[in-house]
Amino acid sequence: MDTGCLVALTQTVNYDIEYVGNVKSAVFGGEGFFFASLKGPGHVWLQSLPFSRLAGRIWASAPQAGGQSVGEGSVLGNIANIFEK
């Protein structure tokens, strides 16, 4: 698991960071080379984007950055927008 996708975990889960790859992949490989290893009983909460990319997307859609509200496929569609005005 990418370490940037981990949000929270219970105390019963053992968490460790592992280096994956070799020197060649570390120099030429692209994104991260460290992954989280999670073992044991318990609960783990993940997010689909690493925190840095999630924060970038939130900032890009914020009004002060010139972003606009974009519907993300809600079951309610535009019905929820009536309450925003």
Automatic annotation (TrEMBL):
It comes from the Bacteria. Pfam families: AIM24 (PF01987). InterPro entries: AIM24, AIM24_sf, Trp_RNA-bd_attenuator-like_dom. This is Biogenesis AIM24. The lineage of its organism: Bacteria, Pseudomonadati, Thermodesulfobacteriota, Desulfobulbia, Desulfobulbales.
